[in-house]
Amino acid sequence: MPATALDDRRREVLRTLIQLHVETGDPVGSESLCRAFGRALSPASLRNIMADLEALGYLDHPHTSAGRVPTDEGYRVYVDSLMGPSPLKDGEARAIAELHSMDASLAQTMERASQLLSRLSRHVGFVLAPDIARTSFRHVDLVPLGHPRVLVVMVSATGLVTHKVIEVEERLEPSQLQECANYLNVHFSRMPLAQIRTRLLEMMSEEKALYDSLLQRVIALGGRAFEVRESEASVYLDGASNILAQPEFDDTERMRALFRTFEEKSRLVRILNACIAGEGIRVLIGHENPDPELSDLSLVGATCSLDGEPAFGVGVLGSTRMQYAHVVSLVDHVARAVSDVLRGHRA
Question: What is the reported pTM?
Fold first, then answer.
C-alpha cells in the first residue's frame, strides 16, 4: 500500500507514533498510543494498525521492545504529507531577524547563522559558501608585505572577503601594486575567477603584453592572485557536540566515523552540497544521504542565491529523530535572513 493510499486512521496513528518517538526517544507501544488517542482506539486495534504499518515498511520492531520506531520511509511519509506547519516562537523569530541587522562582516554573519541554527534546533547548524573558483569578484587590494610577499585581499560579488599571500619575482613599489590592482578592478570586476584566469592566459600571447610593463605585472600578479584550488568552499559548522547528547549515538565507533566526516572538509562539502541542491527546502533522511556514515542522520537544507551567483546553503544536520516541522521552519527563516544579508553586502 503506497503512502498516498493510507486511510485516515493509519495516517493518524503513524503521525502520532512518530511525534511520541521524537519526544521520548523510546519505542512506542500500543498502550502509549491508546493514551495519546484518549482511549478512542483500543490497544488491540492499535496493535493491528501498527503491524500493518510495519508490513508496509514505515515502522520497525526492535527486538528488545514490544514498541515500534519509525523507519526512514516512515519519516519520509511524515515529512511529505503528515506534519503540519510549526510557527517560530517570538524569541526565535527575533534572534533570526537580528542576523541582518548586525554590524558585522559577511563571514561573521555566516558563523552567527550556523550557531543560531545549532542553538535553536539543538542539532548541528551549518552554512556553506560556494567554491571560490565559481564566484565572481568585486574588488581586489594588493598590499606589500616586504619583497617577495604580497597580501591579496579579495572581495567576492556576494561580499565574502578572502585573504592569501603570494610571492612575486619582481620587486614592486606600493604605487606599482596599486596600479595593478586598479587595472584588475576596472577590467575584471564581476567576472568569475575561472574566466579571469583564462583571459590572463590569453593576454600573455598578445603583442601588447610584450612591451607594456604594466600588463606584464598585471598578468604575473593576477595569475597568482586569482589562482584557486578545487573545493575551496567555506563551511561554517556549529554544534557537533549536540549529537553526543542523543541517546541513539552512544556507540563509540559510530561517533568516531561521524566526526571523521566533519573533519574531512572536501567530503563534508560534497554531502552538504547534495542537501542544498535544487530550490526550496530539501530534507534528506537517513539512508537518503549520499554518505553511508551519515545513514543515522537527517539533513534539512535550503539555498540562498543571488541572480547570477552560485548559491550559499544553510541547514541543520541531526538525528533522524528530529522535530522536522520545527527544523524546516528554522531553516526557511534563516535562509531568508541570509539572503537579505547577501543582497545587502552586494549593494
Answer: 0.82
